[in-house]
Design goal:
By secondary structure, the protein is α/β, with parallel strands linked by helices. Helix content is about 30%, strand content about 15%. It has 22 helices and 26 strands. Strands 5-4-17-16-15-6 form a 6-stranded mixed β-sheet, covered by helices on one side. Strands 21-25-22-24-23-26 form a 6-stranded mixed beta barrel. A 5-stranded parallel β-sheet has the order 10-9-8-12-13, with helices on both faces. Helix 4 runs parallel beside helix 18 and helix 9 packs antiparallel against helix 12. The chain is globular and about 70 Å long. The N and C termini lie far apart (about 60 Å). Bound molecules: ligand MGD (2 copies), iron/sulfur cluster and molybdenum atom (MO). One ligand MGD binds next to helix 6.
Length: about 675
Amino acid sequence: MPKPGLAPPESVVTTACPLDCPDACTLEVTVRGGRVAKIDGSRENHITHGYICAKVRRFPERVYGDDRLLHPAIRRGGKGSGLFTRVTWDDALDLIAEKFVAARNGGGAETILPLCYGGSNGLLTQDYADAILFRRLGASRLLRTVCAAPTGAANLGLYGKMASVSYEDYPEARMIIVWGVNPSVSGIHLMPYLKQARDNGAYVVVIDPRATTIARQADLHITVRPGTDLPVALSMHRYLFEEGHAAQPFLDAHTNGAAQLRAKAAPWTFERAADVSGTDAAVLRRVAERYAKTSPALVKCGWGLERNRNGGSAAAAVLALPAVAGKFGVRSGGFTMSNSASWGIERTWLTEPEPPTRAINMNKVGRILTEPEGAPINVLFVYNCNPVAILPDQRRVIRGFEREDLFTVVFDQVLTDTAIYADVVLPATTFLEHYDTVRGYGPITLQLAKPVIDTVGESRSNTDVFMDLARRLGLAGDDDPVDEVDAMLRMLNELPPDVSTGLRESWKATPPHDGRPIQFVDVFPKTSDAKIDLFPAALDQQAPLGLYGYQPDPATAEFPLALISPASDRAISSTLGELPRPDVKLDIHPDDAGARGILDGDSVRVWNALGEMHIHARLTPLIAPGTVSTPKGVWRRSTVNHYTSNALVPDSLADLGGGACFNDARVEVAKVGA
Ligand SMILES: Nc1nc2c(c(=O)[nH]1)N[C@H]1C(S)=C(S)[C@@H](COP(=O)(O)OP(=O)(O)OC[C@H]3O[C@@H](n4cnc5c(=O)[nH]c(N)nc54)[C@H](O)[C@@H]3O)O[C@H]1N2
Ligand SMILES: Nc1nc2c(c(=O)[nH]1)N[C@H]1C(S)=C(S)[C@@H](COP(=O)(O)OP(=O)(O)OC[C@H]3O[C@@H](n4cnc5c(=O)[nH]c(N)nc54)[C@H](O)[C@@H]3O)O[C@H]1N2
Ligand code: SF4
Ligand SMILES: [Mo]
């Protein structure tokens, strides 16, 4: 039976993109004969304004593609053979329920681990029915640290996640520092606003080891060595404090911890910072001088700078700049980080308290599966996530998934690199087949996503599957949502009335402050005393060398090159990564290639103590010497030897938030056969 509210088979439907992308585009989907014929941008959203990325235009190739999962199946070959037998939903869910019960009665429910991340940014597809099930079951909890953990910890510690400057206010800024973020790929709707700002005369600085599109358009591009933003930002603080440019009245009135930050910055002269980061001291000074005297000045802090051992302190130091330089209180002044918390939505519909079960850092999943401390993990339930493709230390993760005694469920839309290792595969609906509520983390938007086509194959939504499992386990009662539509309606009832009305009556809710808050006029730190904490004690205790303590580069003579793996325009993390990817190359500077006798297009091996990847080289001056790059989210099928950059990424943790250190991989590269 089709879902209530399903679009007619011939229609054009307004919905929203829930993929893990800041922009949260409003979509116009053309349906013909009950199938998706075309996905385009809707003009009704003034920010995403009628255009979307090329990858989501291709989403129908995923919905109807060869990799799509159409029915539940159980493994019939060895682990990882990819051989499955079709079964009914009843058989699949009964088997899973049986394994859950056996695990709970055996080693305890903490031997069960739900493994999920950002496959969907919706409020319904994550942390609703899944949370009800796993909390009541008493499973191990997952620390979702693979992304945004260090920047999130910094933003929470300093500002309590105060709302950020939104895209619409960029054009009026006089100076913009684009720091460790590549909006030309990872949030494309910021680009027109950046162009308008430049046309209005704004001075744009980009800090990135690669000459991205925005870096090439900028007034100044600073190519830092990955992992060295902390000294760069601290040298700017030192200048502000020591040369009389700190906004003392603002610091006195609105901050704590300025003296400690000043002390941590004191040793970082421009010369020392330049030396560590591979930049030019005179250039750093010029940026600091201009920043000190320009208003409105804006810092757009991305996620590229967090994925290393210094990532949390780096983000904190960058986010502290507008406080120390006194850039708040004017429209277009301040900072932009994630706006995911800016709606202030409390999940009131989640009545289950979080149980005090053990918490497992997802960056360590490979190690925990293979070298358990305490109770082992014997049952894994993977959803909204493709761990074999996206977690650090890929070879160890695969060894974990190969464990014969591990029972693995993978609930996904396509047969991912992870699903190959499953004991039970469950087919999930895509955002074109279910309801969801989509929250942007760039612009401050909240929208309704609704089913535009009937479910493909036997796929089912997260809510339906998790509630069904809860019922089979005797964990669901009469007060619980019966299905996805019921859950959606309950959530709408629990949202603030104005938000709920907007979502019910149209496709969007009206954001607070028109979605364009002015920091320190409309919004203030959500810390306990409403002040900025420039030196949160909790963060200082967490960081191995204390907050703002710089940990040196992990390069060695044997492995001198920094391997990074940033977002690409072909996929969102690994989603859509199943489609052919001519972009999967190792970008290497001609000097580094020349020194190794590597020519453009050569097949190269990239290796370190953890693993090895075989891939084709692309010589380009657009990457800093000493750094090599390959896209994130690559599927194993896209490299020559079926290992990706994550086979070279250590499972070490960032200084704050237990974050991943994807960009701390240090490697050597050589021509295959050399
Ligand atoms: N098309 C597309 N869009 C996406 C995604 C995608 O996969 N594809 N992913 C989404 C997700 S999950 C996220 S988290 C965001 C991420 O979006 P971004 O914040 O843009 O993060 P990254 O792509 O990891 O890296 C951004 C830039 O940082 C640079 N960089 C790497 N290391 C360092 C460093 O140490 N310091 C500095 N200053 N720069 C560094 C990289 O060269 C890159 O150009 O994008 C989202 N949007
Ligand atoms: N080397 C390297 N690795 C990285 C990074 C890096 O910079 N370098 N960046 C990291 C970052 S920023 C992130 S955010 C992570 C992302 O890692 P993940 O969160 O694993 O994201 P995806 O790779 O997109 O995989 C999401 C999966 O969820 C599935 N899915 C989507 N919607 C639903 C649904 O409604 N129900 C179910 N059951 N499944 C669904 C999709 O089909 C997809 O297979 O990767 C990280 N990995
Ligand atoms: S991935 Fe981002 S840019 Fe592409 S359609 Fe979705 S929200 Fe828009
Ligand atoms: Mo991410």
